[in-house]
Specification:
alpha/beta, single chain, about 20% strand, 10-stranded mixed sheet, 12 strands
Length: about 300
């Protein structure tokens, strides 16, 4: 039986639907139409049953996705999938952002953003969120949403931890409170070590504002481990000098959790350039030499193997 664990474990809110994943590979993935309001989980479960049936035949659905696996047919003969959400991703605001990153085109698009709080309340009442379910805010920029504070507070009251992907252009007291209590963490994609490169990559002159926000978050954070700085490596950022300056920022802020990623547009078209692979290897070696925790973000196993060839 062909199956993906995301189908029964993950729930992702997108601008026009809910689905099991974020689709970083630009595939045709399952997506159930949803535009706000209470969440009808019974209908969604029936939809997932049909998805699982379709995956057993010749279909373009999730074609060539590495997360599709074969499992024992005898163990899979059930009337309905056993669903318990262990992660919930909030991305209904993908087109709502105060940045203009060169590796993203969504900020150019317009469209309404539905309120997600009614759906979250439905989820809480259903009992289908695991007791340790992890809520992740993506986007777009969550901190500029009118309902962000109310939603984040509601999630926190239910006892769930939150991970906020934010550009940190603006300071959020709600985010700061989550960091102080240890109920949340942030991931900031800085993608640079200087104001000049930041402006080239992010499309706004905000390097200083981001560093000030990060300093305030670091001051409030229960632990430096609550703050993760990310570096997306591509042709504008893959210079050794820039990476060194990025790590200087990390040291100045006493931030020790770093991530690296690649440009998804590049990954899904021509593949990752050799210079970017070498830069990723330099990133890992530098982080190790500074005693920092470095982790890949949506980096495939094949890409990791290429990186290893540069690490001696």
């Amino acid at each position: 039986m062909r199956i993906c664990s995301f189908i029964t474990n993950d729930l992702n809110f997108e601008p026009a639907g809910i689905q099991p994943c974020c689709n970083v590979r630009a595939l045709r993935v399952p997506s159930f139409p949803f535009f706000g309001g209470p969440l009808n989980l019974s209908d969604y479960l029936r939809y997932l049953e049909n998805v699982i049936v379709e995956l057993q035949g010749h279909t373009s659905l999730c074609c060539n996705c590495p997360h599709l696996t074969e499992t024992d047919v005898r163990a899979a003969r059930t009337a309905a999938p056993e669903v318990l959400f262990r992660t919930v991703s909030l991305n209904m605001h993908r087109r709502r952002c105060n940045c203009k990153c060169v590796y993203c085109s969504l900020w150019r698009e317009k469209g309404p953003v539905y309120a997600v709080l009614p759906a979250l309340r439905s989820l809480f009442a259903s009992g289908m969120a695991a007791h340790n379910c992890f809520f992740s805010w993506g986007g777009g920029e969550p901190s500029i949403l009118p309902e962000f504070e109310e939603c984040a507070t509601a999630i926190r009251k239910e006892g769930y931890r939150q991970y906020i992907h934010t550009n940190a252009l603006r300071y959020s007291p709600t985010v700061a409170d989550l960091l102080q209590s240890g109920d949340g963490a942030v991931n900031v994609s800085l993608d640079s070590g200087t104001a000049e490169t930041y402006k080239k990559v992010k499309g706004v002159d905000g390097f200083g504002a981001v560093l000030r926000t990060l300093a305030r978050y670091r001051e409030r954070a229960q632990s430096p481990d609550c703050i993760h700085l990310k570096y997306i490596i591509f042709d504008t950022t893959n210079r050794v000098q820039e990476i060194r300056k990025f790590f200087r920022v990390c040291r100045d802020l006493n931030i020790r959790n770093v991530q690296f990623s690649f440009n998804f547009l590049e990954k899904n078209t021509g593949g990752i350039h050799k210079l970017s692979i070498a830069a990723a290897a330099f990133f890992l070696v530098t982080a190790h030499s500074l005693g920092m925790n470095a982790t890949p973000f949506f980096v495939d196993e094949a890409e990791l193997e290429r990186i290893k060839t540069f690490v001696v």
